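Field notebook, page 388. I keep forgetting to write these up properly, so this time I am using the form the group agreed on. The chain and the ligand, flavin-adenine dinucleotide, are recorded exactly as supplied. Prediction of the bound pose follows.
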Amino acid sequence: MALWVDLVETEFLEPLRRAVAEHVEPQADAIDRDDVYPVAAIKALARHGYNSLTLPADQGGRGLGFAHCAALFEEASYASAAVGISLITILQAQTIIRLFAADSLKAAVLPEFGQGLITSYALTEANHGSDIRSLDTKAVRDGDRWILTGRKSFITSGSAAEAYVILAETPVGVSVFFVRQGMEGVSTEEGPNAATFGLRNGPHVDLVLDRVALPADHLIGVEGKGVRQAVTTLDYSRTMAAAISLGIARAAFDGALSFAAGRSAFDRKILDFQGIQWYFADMLAEIDAARLLTYAAARALDDHDDIARFGSEAKLLASRVATDTAARAVQICGAYGVMESARFGRYLRDAKAYEIAGGSSEILKNTIAKRLQQHAASGMAGSREARP
Ligand SMILES: Cc1cc2nc3c(=O)[nH]c(=O)nc-3n(C[C@H](O)[C@H](O)[C@H](O)COP(=O)(O)OP(=O)(O)OC[C@H]3O[C@@H](n4cnc5c(N)ncnc54)[C@H](O)[C@@H]3O)c2cc1C
């Protein structure tokens, strides 16, 4: 019996695993070592329909649910979390357009994802990370156009992106815009903070906007409601980020198990020491729990059910489990775990970076706590009567 239980149909997973083995796995170490965007892998996955899994068929997608999407992120990231995060920035742009954009923009852009459109999701600025309620990037209305000026920082996939979703401040609050690479006034720069130690899918560039003129329908959703729209979109991508962490955790676990089963010390296999077995027992229980929570959060996305809570819980738990698993995998493998030739360093760096990117663990706990406060304020409907 397989160690990892399939949480969607095997008929979906088998071709997915073949595609990952062919297009992702052979490049995984080089993507991380050279810090390059995996263009060929992403375009190949798009040709197989994986970049537009949850879009309806009339928008060039496969019309599947978010559990299948989670399986894509988990399997791709088992080989390469850099490919996983490349797919995340595509999903983010796709989701915010699908949920909030004008019909004309949806009709123009959504079918392009099936053809491999690479996008970035640009919220952060040098002075605004977790707190995006006010921004230095500004957009003003000029007749029937919007004019954008500013600079976004830490932009994942920005070195290869063909289009960006951007948060900018307008006179009535923060708003969201769609911008294509190649428009006049759009450029990218590798600032001093472009190279990360984890989730390395090419430099995390600064995106420079110098009086970029946009058609009116490139405003996504409602002017001034950008933070709400961006955070709703993050509820989707946080669940998929959790699936990326699961892929990292499983890869680290499997690597360490294979090592422990083969390596001997004191006339025994490492795996026969009870102290080592207990590491594995803890890790397996934690990964299994994080998988169940993440796939439940993915199904909640299909049902639009409390997605902020479940997405936050899933990412909070799975990212922590991935970091802990990767660190214990290094410990189990001793000096071999520390070698650059082993993959455990990559797993550890990727796992740790995902405790920050896409919503830090502290911000996720705030989201969960806010939900608890709402529950308490509503008289704790459905709870047993509180007793002192
Ligand atoms: C690998 C990577 C990829 C990234 N990709 C992108 C991208 O594609 N697009 C994009 O827009 N951004 C991206 N970012 C930026 C990322 O979203 C921010 O780093 C993140 O939101 C945190 O912001 P910050 O780094 O400015 O930290 P800060 O907001 O300055 O926070 C610093 C510390 O304080 C904590 N903190 C902040 N506020 C609170 C609070 N209210 N309560 C408790 N603790 C708090 C944080 O959790 C953190 O530990 C990326 C970052 C990384 C590391």
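OBSERVATIONS:
- The chain has three domains: 10-114, 119-224, 227-377.
- The domain at 10-114 is CATH 1.10.540.10 (Butyryl-Coa Dehydrogenase, subunit A; domain 1).
FOLLOW-UP: compare against the apo run.
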